[in-house]
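Think of the structure tokens as a kind of shorthand, similar to the way a musician reads notation: each symbol stands for something richer, in this case the local conformation of the backbone. In the example below we present two proteins back to back. Begin with the first one, reading the sequence and then the tokens, and try to describe in your own words what changes along the chain.
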Amino acid sequence: MKRRQHLLLVAAGAATALTHSFANAQAAWPSKPIRLVVPFPAAGATDLFARTLAQKLGEVLGVTVVIDNKPGAGGAIGADAGAKAAPDGYTLLLTTSSTHAIGPAINPRLPYDTVRDFTPIAHVGNAPSIMLVPNDSPARTVQQWIDHARRNPGKLNYGSSGTGTIVHLTAELFKAQAGVFVTHIPYKGTALAMPDLISGKLDVIFDSLPTGLPFVRDGRLRALAVTSLKRSPLAPDLPPVADVLPGFESNTWFGIYGPRGLPADLVAKVNAAANQALADAATRDKLARLGIEPVQSTPAQFGQMVAADAAKWKKIIVDRKITAD
């Protein structure tokens, strides 16, 4: 009996020691470099955003934030690595609407659950799209384009960067709200679609603002609107589509997640550091040049935003019977 009591006391002591050790480790966080997994290739828009944010985030936290690119499967490979990381605050994941709002509806066989297997930390940026038409288009406003499409059902088309991409789904959302019938022509990236839009073979495309706006500035295309809910500070002269189609909104958002089980105090620390980094004027200016609007949020606000965005895109994907290529 005494031996059993002794063993129980030893076990309890060991458990207490481990708890204290874990608590001390959390209190000392961060004491070494942090890995930020980016589920897309180097030099892409998400990677450039990640590197800009990581530099300032590292300064705020006093450690190096190392970018770890893990591209492939539409972001699923990198997201899976983030989900399976230890919940110690030393591996974070930079996600986008593609991985956590669109991906689950397009590919129900993902190796992770985007709600169960991640801890939302911070919504850190938005990149709206821009509605582009050829210079010889009869439409100079969103309403004129809708009227033109309604007069020509099935005769107009739009380009995208591929089935299931944000470019494709933004156009389908537009079609649904405007009540127009326009044919989808997918390309392997919007860069390949631009020559056809310029020549008039395509009638419209909803490209990301940073890549689409230069075509407008050099006079090769006409911009009708942006897809953010309100005017974007990145293109203040352009009205939002929502002025004609109330509630219309499509953004590529960027957010930071941790793996499931990340302690609340570490979530709060990363969130505070991210918000501080995004308040820096120089960082905001760098992001603006990338076509990204910085966002500051709480973890709860981020989680709610993703849930609403995922529900919106799932409805479009189901209603329009969209499947992955």
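Once you have a description of the first chain, move to the second and do the same.
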Amino acid sequence: MTTEQSEQAGQGEQAEPPVPVPVEDQVPVADQPPAEAPAETPAPLPPMPEAPPAMVFEPVPPVKKDRRVLRAVLRWTAAVVVFAAVGTSAAYGITRMERTDVPGLATESDGRWEYPTISKPPLPSGSPGPFAEANTAGAHYADLRKLLLPAPKGAKADAALRGEDGWLPTKTFLAEYATKDGRETVGQLLTDYGLRHIAARGWTTPDGTHTRIYLLQFGTAAVADELLSQELVSYDTPQYAARGTETVTTYTGFRPSALVADVTRYSYVETKPYGPEQVRQAYLSAADTIAVVLQSRKGTATAIPFQQTVVLQSQLLD
């Protein structure tokens, strides 16, 4: 059927729907020769166009400003880590150095002594501390001999104060008073107030300072406090002169931070003119115990070791 006949047929009646051709058998219309065309040698197909070059996506370079910021952040982070490490090392180093080894702090020692590690002795099981509310008598239940301050490093112990089994005869303590009348009066007072026992320790440091500490224990805190405040001391001077002293006055060199809350302290220093030695002394009232601290030294008895000794002994009794 020619093209014209097909068109006429389409006008006269409805054309039948075309039979579907499988997809694999379909040929593009442009490639089908006309129905009436003579057979010819098919013209060679034009060469396929070259495939477009593959698209290569180059990474977008970061903005230079952002790279600078990143580098700056990394540098500062590294710097902080380095400085932190150096700072920690320096701090540790300073804690391990002597004061005279630290630049800017190369000052001479203030004269304080080097004591061993100090700790209070344990209380018997179930016993309260001397200042506990439940301890109405104010008793020290810990062994009094263990409440004595130990000697500092390099000191030579005073064998005369060791006593028998750590308990000192009363007469050895009374020998610290200057006059016979003083010794007899204080001895009688100790008897009247019910002295239980005395523990003592003494030493001499390389600089020649001779230290003696006596702990006198009584039945109750009220008894000990009355004996000390009413009989043994007054505000500006002890009632009974210590051996080797002449003129004595109140010593006020302690800082407020050196106060120990539950311990009452009376401290004195010998004033000029004094003999070959200067004497410093302190009386402490701590619950049922009276502590007497004496330091003497040829020439001048320095203040710092005296303060240090008095405060540490106070803390042990607190």
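Compare your description with these statements about the second chain. Strands lie at 156-157, 197-204, 210-217, 248-250, 264-270, 277-286, 289-298.
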